[in-house]
Amino acid sequence: MLDTGRDNYYHNPMPEDPRSDEVLVTAYSAGDPAALEILLSRYYTIIRAYLFGLSFFKDEGYLDDVRQQIVLTLFTEIRSGRFNPAGDGSFRKWVYRVTQLECLNQDKKRRKQFKPVSEVFPEEPTGLPSDLLMQVSPESADYESADRKLQAVLKYLTTEEQKLMQLVSAHKEYKEILQEPEFAKYSLDYLKHKIYNIRQRIRKGYQKGEDKI
Amino acid sequence: MKNKCEKYGLAITDYVLGEKMDVSQEALVKHLRACAKCREDLKNWQATYAVMRAREYDSRPEAKARYEALIKELTTQPVPTGFVPQGTQLDVVQEIGSPAGKVWRTLASNGVIRMEDLPKKTGLTPELAYGAMGWLAHENKLCMTRHNDHTDLYLPASERQNAQAGV
């Protein structure tokens, strides 16, 4: 029996609601504040993931501040009726558009401040040539599908494997991971091998389909 | 090509996670230029990694507290009323889009219909039938010809071809 305690490790604030985004916007406008909570919870984490892909700056505090700003912008615009569920197309596209614009604005503001290169690009891997970067642009990636696949794959990982992936997602060095009490028993090589295996399982699961790991 | 892609598959995940790769960056770039599947793989992994990081960040107690405070602040503000009437909210796509499909199919099978006959022929209420008509017109899927005493509705040529082809 697999341990599926994923909620311990990954944020998933609200249960699924069958209503579409557009219906929730209308419901909120008609006086139902719970509809707003459901709506924001659907996009809260996805906005951060999208921002992580888009923004020049990857530090956590900055991304959180920009996301906060985006959520407030969405809130204000919904309240003022700027998003019209009957006529403005999908809410999802609108959220991405607002996120893109806000990200550009905030990045532009931040670039004006002087920052040492190491601080501006703390985690940027050695870059790909620009022609390739255009082709793998994070703007066109499907974050919601990636999220669904991740949630599906997590069900098949043990609690320990999930914790390991969580630490990898938090950008922890292998040596730091070994300092966690539950992983202190592992050698560095074994840990690398284990993480490699989990990644391979996730990759294979993605390629075969969300439910076959 | 399959084995080659498997070899680079690992390099792609290493690259996205910022880890040391088993292949050189030049080799990876060369392969990515040649292989559309691996470029897609890279894009997907970037998105997955971004989602993993975002979910991990949002699981932290301080991030959860910030989220809860934000939601509380937003949901306790009074909802501005006045621009949307109270009552049961309907899904516009479902309410008008589905009847529009019905009108389209009726026009496809009948050819030409008089506007005043539309509700009867489609079995829809006049409000829904004429709402659906507006939907089709907006999507350029409806033609109208006015005569002295009535107006005819019919599908444009491209839609008639689609109907014949069973699209």
Commentary on this structure:
The complex is a heterodimer of chains A (213) and B (167). By secondary structure, chain A is mainly α. Chain A folds into two domains: 13-138, RNA polymerase sigma factor, region 2, helix turn helix motif (Rna Polymerase Sigma Factor, Chain: A, Orthogonal Bundle); 143-208. Chain A has helices at residues 21-29, 33-54, 60-79, 91-112, 117-120, 130-135, 143-154, 159-169, 174-178, 188-208. Chain A starts with 20 loop residues before the first helix and ends in a 5-residue tail after the last helix. Chain B has 167 residues and is mainly alpha-helical. Chain B has two domains: 2-74; 92-165, Winged helix-like DNA-binding domain superfamily/Winged helix DNA-binding domain (Arc Repressor Mutant, subunit A). Chain B is 66% helix and 7% strand. Chain B has helices at 2-17, 25-34, 36-59, 61-75, 92-110, 118-122, 126-138, 157-165; strands at residues 112-114, 143-146, 151-154. In chain B, strands 1-3-2 form a three-stranded antiparallel β-sheet, covered by helices on one side. In chain B, strand 2 (143-146) and strand 3 form a beta hairpin. In chain B, helix 1 (2-17) runs parallel beside helix 3 (36-59). Chain B is flat. Chain B starts with a helix and ends with a helix. The model of chain B has no long low-confidence stretch (mean pLDDT 85). Chains A and B meet through helix 1, helix 2, helix 3, helix 6 and helix 7 of A and helix 1, helix 2, helix 3 and helix 4 of B.
